[in-house]
Amino acid sequence: MSVLPTVVKEFIVGDVQADRVVPPSGFTATLTTFAAGAMAFLAIFALALSLATGRLAARWGDDLAHSSTLRISAPEGQMAEQTAAALRLLKTTPGVESARALTAEEQGALLEPWFGPDLPIEDLPIPQLIEIQETQSGYDAAGLRLRLQGEVPGAVLDDHNRWRRPLEQAAGRLRLLGLVSILLIAATTATIITLAANAALAANAQVIAVLRVVGAQDSYIAKAFVRRFTLRALLGAAIGVVAGMAAVLLLPAAQPEGGFLTGLGFQGGSWLLPMLIPPLAGVVAYFATRHAARRTLSELD
Amino acid sequence: MIELDNTAYSYGGGELLSNISLKLAPGSFHFLTGPSGAGKTTFLKLCYGALIPTSGHVRLFDQDVRDMDRDDHAMARRRIGVVHQDCQFLDHLPIADNVALPLMVSGRETLENHSNLKELMHWVGLGNRANALPPEMSGGERQRAALARAVIMSPDVVLADEPTGNVDWEMSQRLLQLLIELNKMGKTIMIATHDMNLIRAAKSQVQARVLRIANRKLQLAGADL
């Protein structure tokens, strides 16, 4: 492993002489750097999207998998009685860890986003909700429904499956979309750099011809181009990552009210992931330019 | 070192050169003449591997050019100094760096070679033009720089295509002297030219053979020169 840093160091410090044989090209250099920067900026958001949806899917999975809700609609007089009956029944059901009737305040808080704070919900015939925590093994939903039908006719059991599945699916798709975007961004970076390298090689045909005449090997000629494009991609991607991270930092912080939309960002160790983008851009540029240079050179005399 | 065996070359139409056989012995001095368009430049290109013969064989340092890969060609060109008719340089580098380019690309740019470079630049009369860029230079200056670049690696063979085409008589004599000096050090020299005076001037100082390309063939020219 001690060889690798030396190679990388030599590559970055470089052969000053070898670099001089290719004329400086201000404008295309700027374009390459800009393209790498823009791609890195986009990669940051694709990465943030993937991570956020990944977290979201995990959270929904955990929260919803082991809980259910029992909704009791009954005439006002029977409400307390049916709630008590349901709680009794749930306590004797295998697989139910705990069951708790939500208080009027909690139910009010759940409705507030829809009705606003000022509505007198006490006067409305609101169903009573019971929150059920399941054990790891879970309970038999069909059996519980049958027993409820007999003892608590106003009860409806919601085991959350019909909510969880589409949400998890959507989160999974979003995550996949983010990963595909990252791959597409990498491929586009390679394409742009290949095109730029081809243009540079074509523009420097005379330089290459002169170098061949004086006995330069292809590897020497390729090195001059490869080093330039790799360093440009590294620089551009570094700028793009800094800009992208700043933009992510400026997003509003995650809040319970905003749901997943404001959760877009990095948390904990995942802040380190974007640091991988510039080296990856450099690696992509290195291989794209090397491939382009070798192909172009092998087609010459 | 350079060997042509029954070599022919055609650019697609009829053959420009056919049945050419020649062995360049170490230390020999050749002139190559012939009417323009006869194939002098093509012949030289065959001699340094820039063209692959359409039939027959060309061997550079005992290796058939058809069997050489691109790196082999690069290595062969370090041993064959070439002066082109229209010499090309890296236009963004000063002429001194251009002359030193063969050393640079072969990783032989040493301090000792650096003093040789200065000496060589003076020899070709460009001592005070070291920092000039190639596009700022006259045709004659470029040709002298090209010769300096061709010999800086101390190659075994120097092939020069009309090296005195753009320079005055005095400078062409100086270039000739340089090539004769190199020949005396054991280098093989081949100069394509149609300047008969140059050939006569050389013949008084060095054992030179004169080759003539005519009617697609390479002939040894008679003593009438």
Automatic annotation (TrEMBL), chain A:
Keyword Disulfide bond listed? The answer is no
Q: Which UniProt keywords apply?
A: Cell cycle, Cell division, Cell membrane, Membrane, Transmembrane, Transmembrane helix
Q: According to its record, how does it sit in the membrane?
A: Multi-pass membrane protein
Has UniProt tagged this entry with the keyword Transmembrane helix?
Answer: yes
Q: Which InterPro entries match?
A: ABC3_permease_C (IPR003838), FtsX (IPR004513)
Per UniProt, residues of the ABC3 transporter permease C-terminal domain are: 181-286
User: Major location, coarse class?
Assistant: membrane
- Set out the biological process GO terms recorded for this chain's protein: cell division
- Which Pfam families does this one have? FtsX
Transmembrane segments annotated in the record for this chain? 27-49, 174-197, 203-221, 233-251, 271-289
Q: Could you name the domain of life of the organism this protein comes from? A: Bacteria
According to its UniProt record, where is this protein located?
Cell membrane
One Gene Ontology cellular component term attached to this UniProt record is: cell division site
Q: What is the designated name of this protein?
A: Cell division ABC transporter subunit FtsX
Species, as recorded: Shimia thalassica
Automatic annotation (TrEMBL), chain B:
Arranged from A to Z, the UniProt key words for this protein are: ATP-binding, Cell cycle, Cell division, Nucleotide-binding
Please give an example of a GO cellular component term from this record: plasma membrane
Any GO MF annotation of the entry: ATP hydrolysis activity
Start and end residues of each ABC transporter domain: 2-225
Q: Would you say which domain of life the source belongs to? A: Bacteria
Please tell me whether the keyword ATP-binding is annotated for this protein: yes
Q: Which intervals of the chain form a coiled coil?
A: none
Any one Gene Ontology biological process term? cell division
| Cross-referenced SUPFAM superfamilies | P-loop containing nucleoside triphosphate hydrolases
Q: Does the entry feature the keyword DNA repair, yes or no?
A: no
What name does UniProt use for this protein?
Answer: Cell division ATP-binding protein FtsE
> Species name for this entry?
Shimia thalassica
